[in-house]
Amino acid sequence: MPVKKTFLINDLIWIAFAFVVCLGGLKLGFGSFHSPQAGFMPFLAGLLLGTLAIVDLGQGFLRKWERDKSDKVIWADIHWGKLLTTLGVLILYTVLFSTLGFLIGTFFLLLFLYQVMERRSWTTVVIASAVTTVLFYLAFKIGLDSQLPRGFLGF
Amino acid sequence: MDLINHLYLGFAVAFEPLNLFYCFLGVLIGTLVGVLPGLGPVAAMSLLLPATFHTTPVASIIMLAGIYYGAMYGGSTTSILVNIPGEAASVMTCLDGYQMARQGKAGRALGISAFGSFIAGSVGIIGLILIAPPLVDFALKFGPPEYFSLMVLGLTILTFLTSASMIRALMMAAFGLIVGTMGLDNISGLARFTFNIPELLDGVGLVPVVMGLFGISEVLLNIEMKVKREVFTTKVKGLLPTLQDWAQSTGAIIRGTVLGFFLGILPGGGAVIASFVSYAIEKKVSKHPEEFGKGAIQGVAAPEAANNSAAQGAFIPLLTLGIPSNVVMAMLLGALIIHGVTPGPLLLSQHPQLFWGVVVSMYVGNIMLLFLNLPLIGFWVQLLKVPYSILFPLIILFCLLGSYSINNSTTDVAIMLIFGVIGYLMKKISLEAAPMVLAFVLGPMMETALRQSLIKSKGSFSIFFTRPISATCLILAIALMVIPLLPWFRRPGIALESEDVK
Amino acid sequence: MAQRFFVWMGTAIFLLALVIPAAAQDYPNKPINLVIQYPPGGSTDLTARALAIGAKKYLGQPVVCENKAGGGGTVGVALVAAKPGDGYTIGIVTSSPTMAYHMGKLNFHPLNDLTPIMRWGNYLFGIVVRADSQWKTIQELLQYAKQNPEKISYGSPGVGTPPHLAMEEFSLVSGLKFTHIPAKGIAENNTALLGGHIDMVSDSSGWAPLVDAGKFRLLATWGEKRCARYPDAPTIKEAGYDVVARSHLGVIGPKGMPKPVVAKIADAFKKAMEDPEFVSVMKKFDMDHYYLGTEDYTKYMQSDFENIGKLVQKLGLDKK
């Protein structure tokens, strides 16, 4: 039996998610087919998702997973460090956006991003980050009059 | 004939220097706004509305309208170049357009997109002039039961979007339906799945979801690679569409235009649905459906034509009845009122110069857009030559700021990032995003239509079958689902389940 | 060495001392944010913006409008409530948050978490039917409704909106029953009525152009008095039922705003109400000037809160 862990976990996650959604739908009130309430659609959609995931799971066990890519192929050669730190930095940027303000936050974000893929000299990165930040600031703030936040330092 | 007089009046108005200027300004701003992901035409229009107080009503409407259809042109640019839909209606363009860009065919994709949009826009305007009133009457006959059946038909079309497992595509659609329920339920007033976050009361925004699923996920995919991979080939194969491209795309453009126009007239219909449906239909009628998703030029031509003609079609309910078919039209409605022009059935008779002037200026605007976009193609192609390691921080920054500026809220940025991760994972496992997005857009409308119909019919389902339009749609939908399963209709090359065809 | 240090410290403190009083200067010393809780281009948005432009003259600083729509007009107000009460973030409010609160859908308190500043306007709500419908007057409609309970379908801009609650209250008072088909705004209602999918619409004055064009007929309005633009249409009150649609348009701020700041804002907006541009925009949307100063508005919000609470309870819409 060709168990592909990735796809197995995938289907299980969907089943669990669908279950939670169904519960949520019931809590909102299903109503009846004659007068659907708020939970009608969520419940039915969750049911559909869950059923399909179970069918997919079943098909998988019945050898259909043979057609899917193998676990090794999917997760080969992934630079987890880069990926996760990038994500982490993006999340941090989003959370601190208002506190730091656009200019400072973006500057630091770019310092990181410009070297994620290729290591560069610090001078290049600092200059590039500064220039980019200013250009974006001009474009968005002045060109489009967006309301970009000022940080606690006032700019 | 009366029409000639009207057109003459329209041309006279549209070519007044003031109006020409505002037309150009509008389409220019529209293009810029369309290129910048996140910022939509509505934001630009609301910023510029006060500025229009000081000019004539005609010039204001010309400019604001120009922003709208200009944004349709601009939205395709980022879709093709970096897989980020500048606009929800440009999502389908990403599928093949971006692949074409990676193969060095960005110029041809951009070119066919510009030309296709122009042709579609022009035809749409002709349609607006010739058949607006009877069309509107027809569109009004669409009540909740008709909308429901139409949406069901739309969702069955989504089965044509899939290249791989039908089951998985439907799972993604179900997921889309679920995400679509998030927010305040209009009919009961209950908040669904909002986790007490006020910004979620209006549901999850389409733009952050789409930017995350397509744009951010693509960037993440490229970052993770240990092995350095050229994201874009440096060998550029032609800047403008070749004759062969044209030959292949003509049918797509025609079909997209017609489809988009009719869907655009339906209030609540519009460019997004039109682009999805036209893509699916192109794939269905193509002799090489397996090429879709890998850089088929029809996959760019059809949705682009559809979204532009839908944009023109959307003006019809506004100009003939004073009913806005989407948020952008609602803004135009407000602008008209502010300028003392009462939109409604009397608009045509009371303000003929406004009506005809705007209609003709739309054509002028389309021409301007063609001239604006074509020369830029060279510039965009050069841009792609920048090393990806420098390009992608800019892409990310665009996305972050773009999604932030929709509502000045970091919640939208967070949503985009979340869906970026989801999209990344989906891409790894080959789960498709397009069915999810279509269901996400159609789901809420379908649900509202269903519930409104059932309230009206007091729980009886027969309402869907006793009304002619609704019944037709449902029968068509059932037919579409059943026919591919019948043995004598099966065509080699169309994969139902990935295992059946090999 | 130590000397050097103290010189620097002294300079630093001196400089800081210059800065701090500057921060406590007269209000306002920078632009003020006005949060509009509906999308751009609508009646609330355009009239509020006209008011803001007028207020700028009297405040000396620009009033920058921001649209934060959603939740039927509650999201924007929630966001204002979460800001500091320093007078630099204020917002537009209607009766919608109060209604939402009583229906259990609001996560802040419309009285305790907000500072009322002043009231400036009111919408025009009415009942319209198609011009070719069988009911030529409101009385005919009500007669029909009496004989055919729940047969007449009506559209409203959404559950819990003033035109909806007005109809519900009316049902309670008159004993007449209608079928409610909620939509998402006047455009949807207009479309549905034009297409004959619903029998009538209870909504704010977006139906006016269609009435003028002869496609719709205005049967009655929901105000205290007849409206200036359509003097032939009676009010529901005149028709014999003491029901008036409750809503208003006001300016509020987060809780804890200092009184002098509130007074300054209220005064500026009051003067702005006389601005010719504001007056003409309000006219275009058939909205009435509805002024109340800070103190009276505070009392109004109180009574609005109580009245709506009772109404929601009576209608059984409270989900607490």
Can you characterise this structure?
The complex is a heterotrimer of chains A (155), B (502) and C (320). With 155 residues, chain A is an all-alpha fold. Chain A has two domains: 3-63; 80-143, no CATH class. Chain A has helices spanning 5-28, 40-61, 71-74, 80-100, 102-113, 122-143. In chain A, helix 4 runs antiparallel to helix 5. The longest helix of chain A is centred in the first third of the chain and has 24 residues, at 5-28. Chain B has helices at residues 2-14, 17-35, 41-48, 57-82, 91-102, 106-140, 144-157, 166-181, 206-224, 243-265, 271-285, 298-321, 327-338, 347-350, 352-383, 388-407, 410-428, 433-457, 463-466, 468-482, and strands spanning 183-184, 191-192. Chain B is globular. The model of chain B is unreliable at 493-502 (pLDDT under 50). Chain B is built from 20 helices and two strands. With 502 residues, chain B is mostly helical. Chain B has a two-stranded antiparallel ribbon with strand order 1-2. Chain C is an alpha/beta fold and 320 residues long. Chain C is built from eleven helices and eleven strands. Chain C has helices at 2-23, 43-59, 75-81, 96-102, 138-147, 162-174, 186-194, 208-212, 259-272, 276-284, 294-315, and strands at 32-36, 63-67, 89-93, 114-122, 125-130, 153-156, 179-182, 200-204, 216-221, 249-254, 288-292. A six-stranded mixed β-sheet of chain C has the order 2-1-3-10-4-11, with helices on both faces. Chain C is globular, with a radius of gyration of 23 Å. Residues 16-24 of chain C have low confidence and may be disordered. Classes of the chains: A mainly alpha (155), B mainly alpha (502), C alpha/beta (320). Chains in contact: A-B, B-C. At the A-B interface, helix 1, helix 2, helix 4, helix 5 and helix 6 of A face helix 3, helix 8, helix 9, helix 16 and helix 17 of B.
